[in-house]
What does this fold into?
Amino acid sequence: MAEVHFRAQGGVAILTLDNPPLNPLSEALVNGLWEALERLQSSDTLTSCVLIGARDTFVAGADIRRLQRLAKGGAPSGAEARSLSALIASLEASSKPIVAAIDGFALGGGLELAMGCHLRLATASAKLGLPELKLGLIPGAGGTQRLPRLIGLEPAVECMLSSRQLDAAEALELGLVSGVVARADLLERAIALASSLQGPAPKSSEQSEKLPRPEQTQAILDAARQQFKKLFRNVDYPELCLEAVAHGLEHGAAAGLRHERVCFQKCLEREAAQSLIHLFFAERAAGKLTGVTDQGFERRRIERLGVVGGGTMGSGIATAALQRGCSVVVAERDSASADAARGRVERYLEHAHARGRLSDVQLADARARLICSPLLSDVGDCDAVIEAATEDLELKRHIFSQLLDFCRADTLLATNTSTLPLERITAGLSRGTRVLGAHFFSPAHVMRLVEVVHTPSSAPEHVDALLGLVKALKKTAVAVGSCVGFLVNRVMMPYGQAAGLLIDRGVDPYRLDRVMTAFGMPMGPCRVSDLAGVDVGVFAGSILDSAYPGRAYRSPLRRLLVEAGRLGEKCGVGHYRYEDGKAQEDPALADFVERCREEQGNPAPLELADSDIVELLLFLVVNEACRVLEEGHAERASDVDLALHLGMGFPGYRGGPMIWADRRGSAYVAERLQSWRAQTGLGLFEPSPRLSRLAAAKASLLDP
Ligand code: NAD
It folds into this structure.
């Protein structure tokens, strides 16, 4: 239960914000603060005040459930929407000085609250920031006005647009806090500071020394626009943030605060905020798996990780584990391969060091924790072993038969296979059901998504332990049942197939890519194929086609490209030609497209608007996701959205294919699939039973 504890020490009121675990600003907490403030003002004996958070954190931010209700069109009662801003204005207007004592997080509304106080003290571990843009929102309780006035326009705008957290040292240097103190002394120092303050205290919204001259403002805002242009495509909330800032600079903080509310309200009504908040909760839900994470298993810390195979994926997994403090043993097939694996991991670590993500000491320490060996038995004493050897069924079976033989009974075992069902790898192996899937995405030290693959015979405590390992690697796990393609590759299968179909039916391949990148995908289907390797796509496609034959469609284009040695980016030419790492459209592709259409008997071209192309490709993804959900291979629709966002770069501001399609309605999705089914006669477009059911009931594609 959220509370504000009120106590007095001498003439200083101490207000402790207490809303476990991170003191988010719920309505109850805001109301508690209003009451405490009234008590402070009406007291004859109290002359100043300290605001501090319980459990070593100030306030981690807004109550995001409340924001979600508002973003979903829940009518914001004027009083509710204004209450935090009004509270902060009252704090700032208090004639009795108020000091914010900040440990842990002061983020979003938490920092806005702290900026409404007259002075701020922080501990060395404090983190301060306005990350609202991560949720498609802007600071809505004075942040756009007070931050520029406290630290200057340029750093304030950078801080808001990047959603970056400032550490205490930077906050001190910028003047956001007036001192950094030891955690043990925080409260006492804040009390001393509050009692020493006499007379009217400085108000953040009235400061102007750090503001630029009016004629400089535009140039600073334009530079910020330019800097963040690439990060924000197809959305206007960053512009609304700058608009609120600029309004306040031109017309004064009071007008700026009013305009900030208008801009904040606009953001709330946008699809982007609804989508990004959906993904925020999707991420929290994804870590939970019925029958597994609700069983209260105690998670063992994985201190020593074994990786079998130190190629592209194995070296990335090893790097991720070394960066999180694990000791890592990479087992390779021979000494030369072990040395090559060490070389790859060291290059990744050095890259992280060069980018400032590892200090000199951390780099040396990570190197010292790495062993690369030609002996599989060297992973024998590891707490967990992830197999990332060549994609070859017999090889993997051989590796696991040995691992099951000599690893400890409690060692967590997982394979990183992309195409082989777990059951085939472990069939007939004694205790083989211990083996799980840990499907990392490439590059494994960068990509956050890991599909945690389990079968009905997997022990829940093992699945729980693997979810724990993924979390410890600071990655996001999505639990998936063992089916061919798992989740991401399976639901993207018809996307790739339909891209081929559209090319066969007259759509220019480069137009296809332009349409999908304009929609917000990082790359179009042809460019993705080149990146992954056209030959790899043909191989993986054949596995998926044979697993799901009733709805397979394969254009001959990729096969023709492979036959001509156009394997993609790795050999300089595929659908595109690559010069200096840049993809250039290649006129020679037209010949392949023509041959491909001829092979298909020159089918009648399809006349499609750009929006039809987007719907055709993505409704097929949704349809396949409905099958995955119906088969019980994924727990919830939001897992699909999260996995596609993290694994395929589906634009966060559109939320994921399920929520995106749900806005159009399940009936519309099914109806369009039906009409393409009729037009082409292809089983590819057959609506799945689940989609048909939802459509008939006009029900949501998202879980209730
Ligand atoms: P890779 O060819 O780059 O690496 C495989 C490594 O396994 C090589 O270094 C090889 O020397 C080693 N190896 C072969 N036999 C071995 C043995 N007996 N003992 C130990 N090591 C042995 O391949 P990769 O792309 O890293 O793929 C590895 C696994 O990860 C495959 O199962 C693949 O399906 C899966 N995967 C790959 C990707 C990707 O994008 N590359 C993505 C997800 C999963």
User: Anything to note?
Assistant: Residues 489-696 form a domain with the N-(1-d-carboxylethyl)-l-norvaline Dehydrogenase; domain 2 fold (CATH 1.10.1040.50).
